[in-house]
Write a structure and sequence with these properties.
heterodimer, A: mainly alpha, Arc Repressor Mutant, subunit A, three-stranded antiparallel β-sheet, 4 helices, 3 strands, globular, B: 890 residues, alpha+beta, 4 domains, eight-stranded mixed β-sheet, six-stranded mixed β-barrel
Chain lengths: 121, 890
């Protein structure tokens, strides 16, 4: 579903969108899990609401960056209402490109000593 | 958590959340709604377990913001998709698209143009400071049928001093003077006004100043204020104009100011002067005589004063005058004074015509909408399969509705834009038209209000026909897949809607055609009416002597005689006359028959107490006037050269006067007085009635007096052997040879005057005819369309009928009959509507009743003929159906 779309056309991404991609990088998740992970990872700095989350999911899905996963956890372990999303190859490509773009910006900032103290990646 | 939570168990916050989600597009809700709600419930549970009330508020805030940030983007995305899809679909059926867009454009264009005019002329406040406070004051003599009498100097002063409701009362009269000192002697239209005239109207000068009380004192140095247009056109907008001097009426006038470009009421003038500078207005006779009336009076209401209070105030003053001056205001004439808003006064003539045109344009828009709805429904029938497939693929009904509305929206926007272009294009013609009806015409333009109106019309149309078509198309989408193109239940109900739409189109078209037909009949009657004079090969020329050189009636009489002798000696001139005016003179028509009517007294006839004295218009004519105009002399004699100031006063009356004053006696030799018995005038002749004030106005009482006895010399009338226009130049030369200081203000042949007097009804008839023709075309196309669709839906049935022995002629008759049936129903409804509505247009009709059977019958015939023509093609197709093919194809 990449529809010949150019990776570049998705850059730069909104922080919310990028965080959703990061959350899905290590495997498929349902909406609430994505939201929890983003909050945990950013120490509550990025808080997604239901509206923002699903607005982003809809957008990512229609652009082919993520798809709804067919696989479901064993019955009974999960709410049937939940849908699981996973990153497509294209989505991964876009996420990597965004990460690289940010990395490049970061190294330029570092070279100009725009950091208070060096941090380990 | 179970999926089917019964609604009753929903928590309050869940219900609020669901409510919030309605801001999102339905599709989005259908796709993610459940999940979003789930996420929200879990977030809430987290907060309840770990957080405090602040976290709870924060959650709600974030949820709220999240949804309302997401919603516009989602809606926008869908709109973009829908528009792209709609554009593709519309491009796929260019016939439908072009017809629909054109129909809408014409409907919207006609409406916008007419509404622009109505808005500028009837609705917008006057372009003066607090224009709604400005009023027009008039005196009346109701018992003698004079609703609008001008004011004398005494009367102006009385009303000004005695009123308690007006912040200002000013007088106006229009004059025409010759201005020297700026190239050739030039005739300038002059407004003679009170010093505070412009203050009361709230007009500030653009250059210099306007008048001050000192300018109006008698003996004050004469001053002029120029209108913006005159200053711009004749002085190249010279900023150094202030202080320049010109000679007028043998006096030096100094320019003190220039007006801004405001519309001027009641007349468009070149220059303005204070009352003291006008030789007529400042003459002792004028100032002293309470009965010499020549001024219009305007006022401004004090803040908070109502129209009714002002009217009561004026009536009180009138009562006082009646008691004080019984000779000037005898009980028998029913003297009074009243006022009306200036705005109403300025638009009185235009109102009925404009409202009729507005109604007509609205009908066209309604017909256009019905037609587009019908086109859309017909298209739906063809798109049934596509829509069914999309439904089967999961598109919800609301999604399809949205899609269909978008298509309608696109059509309406395109039609609206094109309509606006049409409106702009036609506005100039409409403005010229309106100029004949109201001085406000120059204010006409397409403005923001009208733009909004068009947009509203376009969107309203979109929703109207979009919803109708979408609603009925959605009624049974699954049947589209099952049954192919043959219409079943849904098809039948849709056909009923289509038939209803067609019937309403025919009904509205009928009403429009009736309106146009009645106007056309009136116009024809006006053209056929006997005007009472022979208009062919007569030239009329308004001449204005530099009156300062002529004092006294004898001087004028002499000048007139001299001019006539010279003119009649010219080769090609059959006869000539001098008079105060000519029949169907544009100024006379707009002033109306009451403008120069006077009361008179018949010798030996006493009025009963309370009886109103007779009134008549009067006109001055030289010997040869009746011969030149071809007005028949019925009894007595024409004027002769000997009827001058030294001879006894004589008059020639028209038939109307004879009928009213001497129905059974011979009027010749009878005497009348125009000045309460001071002097007596003998009737010497009777002439035929002339429609002086418009072909549509019945002739009024008219008494002619010799030019040599009245001194009213302002028109030269010449009957020529050949084309009168070819003589115009020579006539101008002769006028100037006799007196080089005579200004010629305008000239026209009487045939032109006659045509001119018909321009307004002709334009009304043309516009209505245009609208009606448009409606007829749209309705006929509609009938043709619905019959074609009906035939294609009934091919199978027709095939069976023919297989069972029906002849092609029977099928032809059946289809034609169906088309005619719809038309007859439409005609019946339209006739009922027309009978109810045409009464409103009565004031525009001439010698035609609003229920004129001839018009009704012809219009019905025209519509039926159009219906037959439109149904004929589909009917022939039906008659040509091959039963075998028809049955096999199903």
């Amino acid at each position: 579903m990449t529809r010949n779309k150019n990776v570049e056309s998705f850059l730069p991404m909104t922080p919310a969108m990028f965080h959703v991609l990061i959350a899905l990088a290590d495997g498929e998740k349902h909406g609430y899990a994505i939201l929890k992970e983003v909050a945990r990872r950013t120490e509550d700095k990025v808080r997604l609401s239901a509206g923002t989350l699903y607005g982003n999911l809809a957008r990512l899905e229609s652009s082919g960056l993520i798809v709804e996963s067919d696989e479901r956890p064993a019955l009974g372990l999960d709410d049937e209402r939940r849908r699981y999303y996973r990153l497509t190859d294209f989505g991964r490509e876009v996420a990597v490109a965004e990460a690289e773009r940010m990395d490049e910006a970061l190294s330029q900032a570092r070279a100009k000593k725009l950091f208070r103290k060096p941090r380990l990646a | 958590m179970a999926q089917n939570t019964p609604p009753a168990k929903l928590s309050f916050s869940q219900r609020v959340f669901r409510g919030l989600m309605h801001a999102l597009p339905a599709d989005f809700r259908a796709n993610f709604g459940h999940e979003m709600e789930g996420v929200f419930v879990e977030q809430k549970r987290d907060v309840e377990q770990r957080g405090g009330p602040l976290d709870f508020l924060k959650l709600w805030w974030e949820t709220f913001v999240g949804i309302f940030r997401t919603a516009p983007r989602e809606h926008w995305d869908i709109l973009k998709q829908d528009c792209a899809y709609a554009a593709r679909m519309l491009a796929k059926s260019p016939g439908f698209t072009i017809t629909a867009v054109l129909t809408l454009a014409l409907g919207i264009g006609a409406n916008t143009a007419i509404f622009s005019v109505v808005h500028s002329v009837l609705l917008r406040p006057l372009p003066y400071r607090d224009g709604q406070q400005l009023i027009f004051i008039r005196q009346q003599a109701e018992k003698v049928g004079m609703p609008d009498i001008q004011f004398s100097v005494h009367e102006v002063n009385d009303y000004r001093e005695q009123n308690s409701t007006l912040a200002g009362l000013v007088e106006y009269h229009g004059m025409s003077f010759t201005l020297f000192g700026h190239g050739d002697p030039e005739r300038v239209s002059t407004g003679v006004v009170s010093a505070n005239y412009f203050d009361v109207f709230g007009v500030k000068p653009m250059l210099g100043r306007t008048f001050e009380p000192g300018d109006e004192r008698s003996g004050a140095p004469p001053v002029l204020v120029l209108s913006y247009e005159y200053w711009e056109n004749n002085f190249g907008a010279d900023p150094g104009i202030i202080g320049k001097t010109f000679e007028m009426n043998d006096k030096v006038h100094t320019v003190i100011g220039v007006l801004p470009p405001v519309p001027q009421y009641p007349d468009e003038n070149n220059v303005y002067m204070p009352t003291s500078a006008c030789p007529h207005r400042s003459s002792a006779k004028m100032i002293e005589n309470r009965d010499m009336r020549m001024m219009e009076v305007f006022g401004r209401l004090k803040p908070g004063v109502t129209m009714a209070q002002a009217r009561a105030d004026l009536a009180t003053i009138a009562g006082r005058l009646r008691a004080e001056y019984p000779k000037s205001y005898p009980d028998s004439i029913g003297y009074g004074a009243t006022a009306s808003p200036l705005q109403e006064e300025l638009t009185r003539a235009a109102r009925p015509t404009l409202l009729v045109l507005l109604a007509a344009a609205a009908f066209v828009l309604l017909i256009a909408c019905a037609n587009v709805a019908n086109l859309t429904l017909a298209r739906m029938a063809r798109r049934e399969r596509e829509l069914a497939v999309r439904t089967a693929l999961g598109a919800g009904r609301s999604r399809l509705l949205r899609q269909l509305l978008t298509e309608s929206f696109l059509l309406a926007i395109t039609g609206g834009a094109l309509g606006l272009a049409i409106a702009y294009g036609s506005l100039e013609i409409l403005t010229q038209f309106a100029e004949r009806l109201t001085p406000r015409a120059r204010e006409i333009h397409v403005d923001a209000g009208v733009l909004l109106f068009t947009l509203g019309a376009a969107l309203g149309t979109s929703i109207l026909f979009g919803t109708i078509s979408a609603f009925f198309s959605g009624s049974n989408l699954s049947s589209g897949l099952k049954e192919g193109s043959a219409g079943a239940g849904a098809g039948r109900s849709r056909n009923r809607v289509r038939s209803a739409l067609i019937v309403s189109q025919i009904a509205f078209s009928f009403m429009l055609l009736i309106g146009a037909g009645l106007m056309l009949r009136s116009l024809m009657k006006m053209q056929q009416v006997n005007p009472g004079f022979v208009a062919q090969r007569v030239l009329a020329m308004k001449i204005n002597y530099n009156w300062a050189k002529y004092s006294g009636v004898e001087r004028y009489a002499l000048a007139a005689k001299k001019l006539l002798d010279r003119v009649e000696a010219e080769p090609g001139v059959l006869s000539a006359a001098i008079s105060s005016g000519y029949p169907l003179e544009p100024e006379l028509i707009s002033a109306g028959p009451n403008s120069n009517s006077t009361t008179l007294q018949v010798e030996g006839r006493l009025l009963q107490p309370g009886e109103a004295p007779p009134t008549t218009s009067d006109a001055a004519a030289s010997p040869g006037y009746f011969r030149t105009l071809g007005i028949p002399l019925l009894a007595g004699r024409e004027f002769a050269d000997t009827d001058d100031k030294k001879a006894p006063n004589v008059t020639i009356i028209n038939e109307s006067v004879k009928r009213r004053l001497w129905p059974t006696e011979d009027p010749i030799g009878k005497r009348v007085s125009f000045d309460d018995g001071e002097t007596w005038t003998t009737v010497v002749g009777i002439v035929g009635d002339v429609r002086e004030f418009g072909l549509d106005r019945a002739p009024t009482s008219e008494m002619y007096v010799p030019v040599a006895q009245s001194g009213a010399v302002s028109t030269l009338i010449v009957r020529t052997a050949a084309d009168p226009q070819a003589m115009a130049r020579r006539m101008r030369e002769v006028v100037h040879e006799v007196d080089s200081q005579t200004a010629i203000t305008h000239e026209m042949t009487l045939e032109q005057a006659r045509e001119e007097s018909l321009v307004s009804p002709r334009l009304t008839a043309t516009l209505l005819g245009l609208f009606a023709g448009l409606a007829l075309l749209i309705a006929a196309a509609g009938i043709g369309g619905i019959m074609a669709l009906a035939v294609s839906q009934r091919v199978r049935e027709i095939g069976i009928r023919m297989a069972l022995g029906a002849r092609p002629a029977d099928v032809l008759k059946m289809v034609l009959g169906q088309g005619l049936g719809l038309t007859l129903l439409g005609v019946a409804i339209g006739a009922a509507g027309a009978l109810a509505l045409t009464g409103l247009a009565k004031s525009l009709l001439f010698e035609v009743t609003p229920t004129d059977p001839f018009t009704f019958a012809s219009v019905a015939l025209v519509l039926l003929a159009a219906a037959i023509v439109a149904s004929y093609l589909p009917a022939r197709r039906a008659a040509g159906v091959d039963p075998i093919d028809a049955l096999r194809s199903e």
